[in-house]
Amino acid sequence: MDFHIPSFVGYLIGFTHLVGLIAAIHALLTVRTAQGAIAWAMPLIFIPYVTLIPYLVFGRSTFDGYIMARRQANREMRTAIGTLNWRPWIEEAVTARRSDAYASLRAMPRLGRMPCLANNEVALLINGEATFAAIFEAIRGAKQAVLIQFFIIHDDDLGRRLQSLLLEKAAEGVAIYVLYDRVGSHALPASYSETLRNGGVQIKAFATRSGWLNRFQINFRNHRKIVVVDGIQGFVGGHNVGDEYLGKQPPLAPWRDTHVSIIGPVVACLQESFAEDWFWATRELPPLILPESYPEDGVLCQLLASGPADAQETCSLFFVEAIHAAQERVWITSPYFIPDEAVFAALRLAVLRGVDVRILLPSRPDHYVVYAASSLFAFEAVRAGVRIFRYEPGFLHQKVVLVDSEISAIGSANMDNRSFRLNFELMLLTVDRDFASQVESMLNDDFALAREIALEEGKETHRLQKLGMRVARLVSPIL
Q1: What amino acid positions are annotated as catalytic residues?
Q2: Alpha-carbon distances, residue 25 vs 29, 61, 202, 220, 390 (angstroms)
Q3: pLDDT tens-digit profile of 70-99?
């Protein structure tokens, strides 16, 4: 074939459209939601030159080979863990069933793979200084093992402080296991991990790519944040390891985020979640430690671990169930607001039931396309009667749900499609009036620093801005 004649261009265009059509059919057959399938299929058919490569990287959200491999790894992990006399939870789980508030979450016992457990001590950690002071203090006191998992670890001042502390504890003979997400921590230099490894720390990257065809796969990110010290104390929430989480990096500073410290039976669930991810990365189990005793009283907690290999869309269904359970109020904070149809419908129905529905969002964007899509959903929510607030002092990154007067949830899950279906997430559900009162007080302080979006704002938005928002919403299912 003469590659210099004009007909070659025609062959190339035709071939590109053929591949685009095949990819569009693949999207229709594999993407989990109708909106996501359409969002991919239409551009793949009409402008494949632009969308084929992004689809290769982002689009294959139900990569069957990965899901099967992940489920198999989980089965192997559970077989291995079963020899350790694990899950000492029967008495606590029976106690949990006596809670009327937890009973309102009728689907939660089956939705979560882990039981609701009594007798936990929980403490709010508001913003980065309090969070990392508590985490570093717990690690300094470690005697046996420390399990650490973050989506992002930066080689900055905070990251190096963590590195030094882990090297110090490893030198004392404490077993240290660190897991980070390869995509989220793409900027982490190899020297950071190598220094830890040379100091006796076990450190691995979580990655979901498998095989030649999937070498560009960057979906299925592990967004979980876990620290467990000696099987006794655990931490979960929204913070990653980086100076921005201490509010040291404008223009998003000050950074608003929330973590939780936990002591009690639910820490075993945190260890099991970490073990699943570590086993996927290494085919080995980390040390799993059960304390000699638990608190004699405390908070009911359920750890909700979700991910793309789940049989159901656990994270999305959690939001739907929590919103449907609300009788008086449901307050939600999230950096991103791109709900799917089920979650958005649940919010509208809650308003119609007379529930006080509030959503707190950031006023500053960290991702402009996501912010634009979130803004359009926010205007639509306001028209439906949902009260939407913009947090003004800095970037709001916390992920908190408060339902009525006893139920709260804090963790890593955002209110968007990526958390619902593509990321590995973790939310700590708590059922306790006193703790919910603390969460309410924290959120009231946040609302006092926020501006409520008025109904007129959507109408006054410039048409060009509205066009940009609608384009952003068109691709929102794949963000």
Answers
A1: 223, 225, 230, 397, 399, 404
A2: 6, 14, 43, 22, 40
A3: 778 778 877 777 666 666 555 566 566 678
